[in-house]
Amino acid sequence: MKSAPQNAPIRVMLVDDHPSRAQSVEEHLKAAGFEVLSVISSATGLLFQIEQHRPDVVLIDLQSPDRDVLESLAIVNRHSPTAMVMFAEEDDPDYIRQAVEAGISTYLMEGINPAKVKPVIEVAMAQFKSFQGLRQELDTARTQLQDRTLIEKAKGLLMLQKRISENEAHQLLTRLAMDNNQRLRDVAQTVIATLSALEIRK
Amino acid sequence: MSDPARLPPAEITQLSLGYMRLTDAAPLILAKEEGLYARYGLDVTLRREVSWANLRDKLVIGDLDAAHLLAPLPMTTTFGAGGIRGNLLTGLSLGLNGNAITVSNSLWDSLGLHYPGRAPDALEVVKKLGEQIKERGPGSRLTFATVHAFSMHTFLLRLWFQAGQIDPDVDIRLLVLPPEQMCDSLARGIIDGFCVGEPWSTVAVEQGIGTVAASGYQIWNNAPEKVLGVTEHWHNLHPATHLRLRLAIMEACRLLTEPQQRVRIAEIMSQRQYLNLPEKMLLPSLTGDYRFSKNDAPVQVPEFHVFWKFQAGFPWRSHAEWIVQQSSALLGKEINADDTRALVQQSYRANLYREAARCLGELSPSQDYKEENRHGSPWEFEPGITLGADVMIGNPQYSGKTD
Question: Who's near A75: CB < 8 A, 6+ residues apart?
């Protein structure tokens, strides 16, 4: 609102269902000198929270169903003092893409200077992106673990079936992978399927 | 049935198609399950989204190729009313009707109206509500919710209130909530009623927390509802892919005229990867065997969802024009006649429907506009083309025809 003093810090509300991500965004925003009014998850009465806190900016997870609620504040309640508009810089088409890719959307109180809000968004976007990075790393680690389990299982079955050592079983799998131009985990999967079928028939 | 081999080759074949968790996503899901996309050489991934804002943004930036959109969104996004701006268009409407207005049991009981064995009289209900609001006087405003500001839900709800001499801007507090929160908010008394797409009214009725006071059909017979939206840019780059996509979905819409397909799609959509809701919540509106309140027997409302007959897929510009007028009223911003017409012509592409209908060997209307609010029963628009009733509740000033 225009009544806010010129140098007052931008007051931010964060709507995010991921507590750890929300926490890191909050910490980084505070460190950058912004005021974080509240951090809420979806389905906790966004309209009420906005009326209570009157934030200058709302940062919201793209996957929150509350986005349509926020957008309605620009339209249905156009006479209310809490009219929010979407931050969508017309001269920067890349911004929308980046924001969507990072998984975040920003709304500001009507009358707030968008230039003042930009640093807030940059801080939040960086945290959202690093959270995405962490999740990808986690996914990769999980896949690697699953692969290793599969390979171990295939080796065990081969050792039993062919009465060979672990080392020989490993070499056999590696050779099969090279001959068939397949990844080790895929070969392991085939071996498990084939040998398990044999087991059942026995 | 058309021969896909004789169509121009698709520019791209891998598509992402976004939809919301609503019963009227049925044609998009049936086209997938029936292998209709594949028959037209398309590999379509269906993506369920959590908000209309997400569908719109992902469509605008190209993360989605096409989407199940509220009928007003092509115009309001092109116009830039709230949210990001982008030129959107549709060449296929995904069906007519599909909404209902549900009120809390306490509000319903306070009206003292009973309709054993038949649907409530939507006009009588809202007139009674209007009288009650006048008696209560200002300061005790009722709160109603819809799922998006620019939706047929909002516009039909406002039309209904106006028919009961209720001013939706003064007498009612109108807000937006996610569909999943509607029933809970109604049960907790945060809202007094809502207008939403199915299955959310049925969920409220089945849970015993609300009574359906009016079906969307009763407010405006055969009103527009959802469309298949794409960006103008995407359409210009991929006209042949767009045509194939429309054909696949139109074939699904045509299949949905068969009662057994309605039952089948309810079973399919109940699955976890689609709507993830019990089948019994989806069946009432799809079969037209609809329950308005928990303690009353179901009533036959065969036009609850119309996917194919009455030229349901045709993007009528007379529908679009009404939508722009309503959006303008909601925004409190004048959109003059020339701008309205330009917006409607840019966003509602009747010719794209005709192109697809020709491929399917089906008739389509030769005019872009039709009369609205004139016919109380099905009528012949042109030889071989029968359209449904088009009456609006309370008989407001709108005729649909332009000079």
Answer: B81, B82, B149, B150, B330, B331
Residues of chain B contacting residue A49, judged by C-beta atoms under 8 Å apart: none
Amino acid present at B264: R
- Window 30-49 of A: residues touching B by CB (8 A cutoff) are 42-43, 45, 47
pTM above 0.90, yes or no: no
User: In the prediction, which pLDDT does A4 show?
Assistant: 47
| CA-based nearest residue in chain A for residue B149 | A72
Q: Name the β-bridge partners of B290.
A: B299
Confirm if B56 and B83 have CB atoms less than 8 A apart.
yes
Regarding whether B79 and B191 lie in a shared domain, the answer is no
**A129, exposed or middle or buried, with CB in 10 Å at 0-12, 13-18, 19+?**
middle
Query: Domain A11-137 classified CATH 3.40.1130?
Result: no
Query: Predicted ipTM?
Result: 0.89
User: A62 and B84 in contact by Cβ < 8 A?
Assistant: no
Domain assignment of residue B292, yes or no: no
**How far is Cα A75 from Cα A81, in angstroms, rounded to an integer?**
12
List B residues 8-67 in contact with A (Cβ-Cβ < 8 A).
50-54, 57-58, 60-61, 63
Residues B87 and B170 in one domain: no
- CA B86, CA B76: separation in Å to the nearest integer? 9
Beta bridge partner(s), residue B18 = B47, B67
- Give the domain range for residue B245: 4-97+224-257+307-387
**What residue ranges in B232-291 does DSSP mark as E strands?**
289-290
B328 and B365, same domain (yes or no): yes
pLDDT tens, residue by residue, B104-132: 999 999 999 999 989 999 999 999 999 99
Distance, C-alpha B3 to centroid of its chain: 30
In CATH, the number for domain A139-201 is: 1.10.10.10
Give the count of domains, chain B. 2
Burial B25-35 (b: 16+ CB within 10 A, else e): bbbbbbbbbbe
Both B42 and B56 in a single domain? yes
Indicate if B15 and B82 belong to the same structural domain: yes
Query: d(Cα A166, Cα A158) in Å, to the nearest integer?
Result: 9
Q: Is B376 found in the same domain as B229? A: yes
Q: Is residue B394 part of a domain?
A: no
HEC string for B159-188: HHHHHCCCCCCCCEEEEECCHHHHHHHHHC
